[in-house]
Design goal:
The chain contains twelve helices and 14 strands. With 392 residues, the chain is α/β, with parallel strands linked by helices. It folds into two domains: 138 residues, Aspartate Aminotransferase, domain 1 (Alpha-Beta Complex), CATH 3.90.1150; 244 residues, Aspartate Aminotransferase, domain 2, CATH 3.40.640.10. The longest helix has 28 residues. Bound molecules: pyridoxal-5'-phosphate.
Length: 392
């Protein structure tokens, strides 16, 4: 009998939750367009409204502040723009500041030109340098427009949690706008847009067990908004045109609601599993480098390097043994390049890192099997290294 595969790549995408699938199937049966005023349209609109409330709860925001997009990448492209509106008035933003470890959809800078983007340094633990942020904002030419800062709440490779609330205080002091990429944090830890001091928060459905292809911009209020990236029929209160997908929104909403149920108890279970995994890795390979091990981190993520073994080679070995882990982020069209996150942390980006990201569904038996395979890969690494040393 074929061995069942073990999925440990939740930060790339999480498996679809049954509750999300069910909500999507119900919504797919509705024929109406949410913008139509007849009964069929109103039924589709009701699905959108419910999903909006569920997703808003994920960010501690009000439903009116949720704009659905095709994913967090589009959400980033929407808010990263020099063109804002404050009510009906234009509001100019002249420069974007981003930590060097951000996701590529943030580093791409949206509608800012490359000369309008400044990268901020991080330390060896992956934490943004708040002193550098303060200095940059002090030097910012306010006469040319406001400063926009985008900081992720949790890193997709290392899981490092950035000191967003501290950064927000600095940004507010300098009259800047704060965008927080909460894609990896939403649904894994309690997120509250006001407590974070963020003006905008970005979310993605597929990281929390909803369908792929939907995300959201959550705003702190309704007055200051970016000029739409996609103008047209005026859906999503004019902030993002195009007929909405009630099925995708329903799946996102159901996944958000599920994530918030027993959030703390679930987080404790996942954290204990991750700690078991790391203890096993450390015991078998004392020279293994667990990146950002000293930083506050996401409860489900471990990102490590094994000296002498390229992450890509290890990933293939895990895959052949039936275990899906990642070597770097999954967004680069199947190609694994050197990790910009490790490079920014001053680590050996060519050796790369192996990212194991688990979820609530990860079982004890799967952890045991992971550790068995890790032991096998590690033994082979030791043997290869001894042979190489013997040859020298
Ligand atoms: N931000 C982070 C931190 C991510 O991990 C990802 C996905 O990998 C994104 C943004 C992009 O999200 P989406 O796949 O919804 O475009």
């Amino acid at each position: 009998m074929k061995k069942p595969r073990i999925y440990m790549d939740y930060n790339a995408t999480a498996p679809l939750l049954p509750q999300a699938r069910e909500a999507m199937e119900e919504a797919l049966a509705l024929p109406g367009n949410p913008s139509s005023v007849h009964a069929e349209g109103r039924a589709a609109r009701a699905v959108m409204d419910k999903a909006r409330r569920q997703v808003a709860a994920l960010a501690g925001a009000s439903a009116a502040c949720v704009t659905f997009t095709s994913g967090a990448t589009e959400a980033a492209a929407t808010v990263l723009t020099p063109h804002y509106k404050m009510g009906k008035a234009d509001l100019a933003v002249s420069h974007l500041y981003v930590p060097a470890v951000e996701h590529p959809c943030i580093l791409a800078g949206g509608r800012f030109g490359p000369e309008q983007i400044t990268k901020l340094a991080v330390d060896s633990q992956g934490l943004v340098d708040l002193v550098a942020l303060k200095t940059r904002l002090e030097d910012h030419d306010a006469a040319s427009g406001l400063a926009l800062v985008a900081i992720q709440l949790a890193n997709n490779e290392t899981g490092v949690l950035q000191p967003v609330a501290e950064a927000a205080a600095i940004i507010k002091e300098h009259g800047g706008i704060l965008v927080v990429d909460a894609v990896q944090a939403g649904g894994r830890l309690a997120v509250d847009i006001s407590a974070l001091g963020a003006d905008f928060l970005l979310l993605s459905s597929h990281k929390i067990g909803g369908p792929k292809g939907i995300g959201a911009v959550v705003s702190a209020g309704e007055i200051m908004m970016p000029v739409p990236l996609i103008p047209g029929g005026g859906q999503e209160r004019g902030h993002r045109s195009g007929t909405e997908s009630p099925a995708a929104a329903a799946g996102f909403g159901a996944a958000a609601e599920q994530a918030l149920n027993d959030l703390e108890a679930n987080a404790r279970k996942i954290a204990a599993d991750r700690d078991r995994l790391e203890a096993g890795i450390r015991q078998m390979a004392p020279d293994c480098i667990i990146h950002a091990g000293e930083s506050p981190r996401l409860i489900n993520t471990t990102f490590f390097s094994l000296p002498g073994l390229k992450a890509e080679t290890a990933q293939i070995a895990f895959d052949l043994e039936g275990i899906a882990v990642s070597a770097g982020s999954a967004c680069s069209s199947g190609k694994v390049g050197p990790s910009h996150v490790l490079a920014a942390m001053g680590k050996d980006a060519d050796l790369g890192g192996i990212r194991v990201s688990i979820g609530l569904e990860t079982s004890d038996a799967e952890l045991t099997e992971f550790l068995r395979v890790f032991g096998k890969i590690n033994e082979k690494r030791d043997k290869n290294r001894k042979e190489k040393t013997a040859l020298v």
